[in-house]
Amino acid sequence: MSSKPWADGPLRLIKTPSVIEDVSSHEAVYIANEMAFAHNAMLRGINCIYLQAPNISQPQDISDLLFLAKAWATWVIHHHELEETRMFTGFEQIAGQEGPLKSNVEQHHAFSAGLHDLKDYAVTTNPSAYSGARLQSIINGFSTELEIHLHEEITSLLSLRPFDGKALLKIYKECEAAAGDQPKAEVFPNGSGIVR
Asked: What is the pTM (predicted TM-score) of this model?
């Protein structure tokens, strides 16, 4: 076994609900488990970008990493927009109340500017102007809020167990299908079909 950190840090991965619960016990558990898979893919993606940032110097490697950063940021931005505009509003309609996911939306706003800064840097930076320290600094500017959000959203989704599971799953599946509608050549591979 390697002693290298690979992609399991610096941001902590999420323990999936299936480790301690039967995902067939309620659709909310299934949804939270699936979301934990997607969130772990996001965490591993940003960890990879962060860890590689200071270790590259060849123009093609820099171009590749900047493309990965752009694709990752595009995926995560789209994911959170889809949650805010369709998934969370749909879940709250089923719950018959506003609020169960309000804190998660507020968390989106706490790191949204940083995501856009990362995407802008990835899109506008030429390999000759690339700075691994600058890329890491941008990530450091929003990663704590992102990590907290990705973990806490799983708990919020589990809190939907008292509500109509079949209706929750219908909303989730609709959003999962919409997540796959992104341009395949521009979106992080895990965000375009493998893990939505």
From this structure: 0.91
